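Researcher: Before we compare anything, I want clean individual predictions. No alignment, no superposition, just each chain on its own. First chain goes here; please echo the sequence and then give the structure tokens.
Model: Echoing the first chain and its structure:
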Amino acid sequence: MRVGIVGKTDNNGEVSSLAATLLKKFRSRKVDVILDEKFNDLVKHNNFAPLEEFHNKVDLIMVLGGDGTFLGVSRVIAGTDVPIVGINMGGLGFLTEVTRDEAVKLSDLIISRKYEIEKRDMISATVLRKNRVLSSHDVLNDVVINRGIGSRIVDLSITIDSNQITTFKADGLILSTPTGSTAYSLSAGGPIVFPTLPLMIVTPICPHTLTNRPLVISNSRIIEVKLYHDTSGLQVTLDGQINVDLVNGDVIKVTKSKKAVNFIKSPFRDYFSILKTKLMWGERYGTI
């Protein structure tokens, strides 16, 4: 077995400490470990490679960091058979399901190959300008159209399978996968969707019309968002990490991606237990 380890490089030392512990554990069980070369500066190891080459070198990847680190890695290895698991070294962490205290226990299960894999669909976002492709990316969480700082209402025309649905007057729009339903979409009032369902979520951000509400549709559909009127400062942001500036008349086309990401499921709790823990369902915030 060959295990790849990727870590958040700007951590305060906890990531490198955990990586060293895992390295020692895997070595004691004769398991080969390959570090991401960017991470190798923090954790000295004689076997490292660029993340882009991991799909040819490892059987699975452990990501030590927060959801942002996990998203970045997932886009690189998407479409390969290499599964990925996140160890939460950040804050809330919906994607990094395993706690740092559980990481060593997980390594034992990995060595014994006692883990389950769950496929998570991605969506593909293509920006078209005058019918030419300006940008195209596959994302795991969401596609967000807004102005960011100094946001003003924008008109966004939505078509699904070439049928014009409505024009949202809103601060922006979120197009999300089920995996991303617990991210920005949830903050904007979108539904929580079980992560393996074949769906996409359309969530307006602070809609001017109160009857504009989130839509949940099959991910076999084709969504097109066209920009009208004043689009100054408007951007599309992919997984919160990639930004593309937009101009009037641009079209953002969103479809199911041909790629997917294989998650190693947390062996310590199921999805609903994770929701209860992360969202603190059932907690009392004080008494009257």
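Researcher: Okay. Second chain, same rules.
Model: Second chain and its structure:
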Amino acid sequence: MPFPTTRWNLLDALKAGTADTKREALGDIILLYGGPLYAFARRQTHGLRGREDCEDLVNDFFLKCVEGDVLERADQARGKFRNFLAKSFKRHILNDDRGRHAQKREPAAGPPISLQSFTDDPGLEPRTNETPEAAFDRVLRRSLFERLVSDFRGRCERAEQMKKFELFLLREVEPRRNGTPEPSYASLADRLKPPSENAVNKIVLAARKEFRALILAEVGRDCASQKEAEVECELVFNVDLQS
């Protein structure tokens, strides 16, 4: 059974929606893809454009998505929405003739949506020998992972299972963010006082399974098959979290 393609639904809203739905869809797309496209621009321009210039490129691209014909080339049959967006943005960079004297423009449907929270993140800077496409994918997967960690926390709070979230965070997330060794189950049992080291192991395994299910459901929105979604799920789960 095909997965729901809600990313393409966002594009449909930009194509044919009202002013309000266009603005809402644009906000969702910027939230999802603003950071990854910024990282793409930083690598694609080979350092010849600074952070503000790359931010301008992203803002202007999103404006053209609403006002211009960028979306007319979109074809769901050709693959993932994120691939379409990255390829369209690459064309936008190559066609841009404003250089370092670009003027910021505001979306016609409402106030500008700042990307400052993205550009302040050192994790968006491309790595050595990283292609623009690889930078885009890494940042997109990292952003998705972090957003789902926040969602997972909310689920655990509502279920009154915060010990499960804390153990998952300490064992599976914080070491990868900080570049430190994973704490042992024994040390976690001593720190949070569950019944036993074995109980900690079971709680962490259950949390990991639940978190993977969240990732799978999310990436399935832009995948054509179960197999493709499972591969992408593993890439997101194991993404580099360090800045």
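Researcher: What stands out in the second chain?
Model: Residues 141-243 form one domain. Additionally, Residues 35 and 67 are 21 Å apart (CA to CA).
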